[in-house]
Specification:
5-stranded parallel sheet, Spore Coat Polysaccharide Biosynthesis Protein SpsA, Chain A, UDP N-Acetylglucosamine Acyltransferase, domain 1, 7-stranded mixed sheet, elongated, 6 helices, 2 domains, alpha/beta
Length: 332
């Protein structure tokens, strides 16, 4: 089965980090967002994914592709790359992988993490849509259902007709069917919200054509689309996974934390809710509710609600700080 991941967006709401790293490649407690999504499918889906199709932006370079190839190999899957030159909506993004829309496919938009305690079966359905119960359905596209069968899709309903939000994960038994309906939208210039080509319009056409849509509900749906959301999701994952950690000289650790390989920490207080990636050096600092990426060097810092880029040098910083890769910041 193919897994198709549109990820051409620039992730403007997680800048400065997305200036150098696409949002789906940002880490959550030691593992990239996109890899956590692949791991979730391996754990919860009754199918094996043997190819991952990444829809990238035109300016995504060789290093990004190599990272994704290595990740795919770890999960015994072939990596294929397509390009979305312009952001014209979710249906347009999927259309950029038109040559891959054949046979069984899963499409997932890599803005969020999700999980389910139960195994998801896709038998006896033309399509399966992953859903999450929400308190305020008026903020989301929702699915109306009878039992396990979906009967309608409604974008941001004004009336409480369903509290099951569409989370951006879709299975199709025949990718060719979806390809046909997306092409119809493009050929006839049928746009929806934001004057863009929307995948939900293609789903609606498939539903009206008599295709059988089933629902799969998730227990966990975590946003990574903004800096506060990335921090909050990392904190929830840290609490859930409860990583072990080493002892460090003159340092107090308040779990939950994640501390990557070859990290060096001295004279500091770390946690709670701190993720420190590999090969980072921290001296005489107090850090809580923050993300520190690889190969960073921090000294004499007191940080909270902060996100620190790869290969960044930070001295004397205090409070909430967000700095991108290869930055040097000295305060005090």
């Amino acid at each position: 089965m193919k897994l198709i991941i549109p990820m051409a967006g620039r992730g403007t709401r997680v800048r400065p980090h997305s200036h150098t790293t696409p949002k789906p490649l940002l880490p959550v407690a030691g593992t990239m967002i996109v890899e956590r999504i692949v791991e979730t499918f391996a754990r919860t889906l009754d199918r094996t994914i043997d190819e991952i199709v990444y829809i990238l932006g035109p300016d995504f370079g060789r290093e990004i592709k190599e990272t994704l190839k290595e990740m795919s190999t770890r999960h015994d899957a072939k990596a294929t790359f397509r390009v979305q030159d312009r952001a014209l909506g979710t249906a347009h993004a999927v259309s950029c992988a038109e040559e891959d829309l054949s046979g069984e496919v899963i499409i997932v938009f890599a803005d969020t993490l999700f999980d389910s305690k139960e195994k998801v079966t896709v038998d006896d359905a033309d399509s399966v849509i992953w859903l999450k119960e929400v308190e305020d359905p008026s903020r989301f596209g929702v699915a109306v259902h009878e039992g396990d069968t979906i009967t309608d899709f409604v974008e941001k309903p004004s009336e409480p007709i369903s509290n099951l939000a569409i989370i951006g994960v879709y299975y199709f038994k025949k990718g060719e069917d979806l390809k046909r309906e997306i092409q119809y939208l493009l050929d006839n210039d049928i746009t929806g919200h934001g004057n863009e080509y929307q995948l939900t319009d293609a789903l609606d056409r498939l539903l009206k054509d008599g295709k059988v849509f089933k629902k799969a509900t998730v227990d966990e749906w975590l946003d990574c689309g903004t800096l506060p959301a990335w921090l909050e999701t990392t904190g929830e994952i840290l609490a859930k996974e409860n990583h072990a950690y080493d002892e460090y000289p003159d340092t107090t650790i308040h779990p939950p934390v994640f501390i990557g390989d070859n990290a060096t920490i001295t004279g500091s207080e770390i946690g709670p809710y701190v993720s420190i990636e590999a090969d980072t050096v921290i001296k005489n600092s107090r850090i809580k509710n923050s993300i520190v990426q690889k190969n960073a060097a921090l000294a004499d810092c007191t940080l909270e609600d902060s996100t620190i880029g790869n290969h960044t040098e930070l001295t004397g910083a205090t409070g909430e700080v967000h700095v991108g890769d290869h930055s040097i910041l000295k305060q005090g």
